[in-house]
């Protein structure tokens, strides 16, 4: 059974208290509600960025459709106007007149169809741009809200960081000069047992696992020399006797 000064074993409880406080503060720091809110906004913003790219691509494609439709309408309209001018100018024989009138009928129908295509494309472009603008506006709202939450995170996190620094300073003072073997055993047990490597013996109960020791184990512990490092038979942690 290893040994360490009884006073060092008592001080180990102060180290344990500081370690638990640090562990709790770090957990609190990592689970601040504001962090979950920021994560949700980041996920939404990422999805909106995908949507923005998709809608931007869609709008760009439709703009090309609108430009082509406008060019087609302009070309047919110009051809129709030329034919109407020729028809109005007279001097055309009957055969050419009939052909010109037939062409004008075709151009009129074609122009109507193209104008419908142009109008439909413009409506689709307007809808795509409206969605794109809505996405951009929502991302701007998210950016503003994220800025607010980040400031809140920094304030809350900064306050906790100060508490952690204080706890670490207390821990350093409590651990200063402790028996090296005792410290090494404590650190190993703390890592293995959820952050608790040492606990006080209160009556017949280990405050690490809160189990009551059987009479035989308790008698063996009570009979051990003050500098002997004893461990709980239930959880294996260092059991500190307060005397």
Q: What is the CATH first-level class name of the largest domain?
A: Mainly Alpha
User: What is the end-to-end distance?
Assistant: 19 Å
If classified by CATH, what would the architecture of the largest domain be? Orthogonal Bundle
The helix fraction, in percent, is over 70%
DSSP strand count? 4
Number of helices: 5
- Strand content range: 5-15%
Give, in spatial order, the strands making up the sheet with the most strands.
Answer: 2-1-4-3
Q: Would you tell me the structural class of the helices and strands? A: mainly alpha
Number of domains: 2
- Overall mean pLDDT stands at 94
Whole-number radius of gyration? 41 Å
Shape: rod-shaped
Largest sheet: 4 strands, mixed
**Which residues sit in consecutive blocks of at least 5 with pLDDT less than 50?**
none
Look up the CATH topology of the largest domain.
Helix Hairpins
Q: What is the element string, with H for helices and E for strands?
A: HHHHEEHEE
Explain how this protein is built.
With 243 residues, the protein is mainly alpha-helical. It has helices at residues 6-30, 33-89, 94-175, 180-192, 215-223; strands spanning 198-202, 205-206, 230-231, 238-241. The chain folds into two domains: 6-22 and 179-241, no CATH class; 32-165, Helix Hairpins (Orthogonal Bundle). It has five helices and four strands. Strands 2-1-4-3 form a four-stranded mixed β-sheet. The radius of gyration is 41 Å and the shape is rod-shaped. The model has no long low-confidence stretch (mean pLDDT 94).
């Amino acid at each position: 059974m290893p040994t360490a000064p009884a006073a060092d074993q008592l001080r180990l409880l102060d180290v344990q208290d500081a370690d638990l406080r640090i562990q709790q503060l770090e957990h609190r720091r990592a689970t601040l509600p504001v962090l979950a809110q920021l994560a949700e906004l980041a996920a939404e913003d990422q999805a909106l960025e995908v949507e923005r790219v998709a809608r931007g691509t869609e709008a760009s494609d439709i703009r090309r459709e609108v430009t082509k439709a406008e060019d087609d309408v302009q070309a047919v309209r110009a051809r129709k106007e030329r034919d109407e001018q020729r028809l109005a100018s007279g001097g055309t024989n009957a055969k050419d007149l009939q052909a010109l009138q037939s062409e004008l009928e075709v151009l009129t129908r074609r122009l109507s169809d193209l104008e419908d295509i142009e109008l439909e494309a413009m409506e689709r472009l307007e809808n795509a741009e409206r969605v794109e603008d809505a996405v951009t506006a929502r991302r701007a709202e998210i950016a503003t809200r994220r800025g607010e939450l980040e400031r809140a995170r920094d304030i809350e996190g900064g306050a906790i960081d100060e508490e952690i620094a204080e706890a670490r300073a207390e821990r350093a003072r409590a651990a200063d000069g402790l028996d090296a073997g005792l410290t090494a055993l404590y650190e190993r047990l703390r890592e293995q047992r959820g952050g608790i490597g040492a606990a006080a013996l209160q009556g017949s109960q280990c405050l690490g696992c809160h189990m009551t020791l059987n009479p035989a184990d308790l008698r063996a512990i009570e009979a051990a020399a003050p500098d002997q490092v004893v461990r709980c038979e239930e959880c294996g942690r260092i059991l500190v006797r307060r005397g």
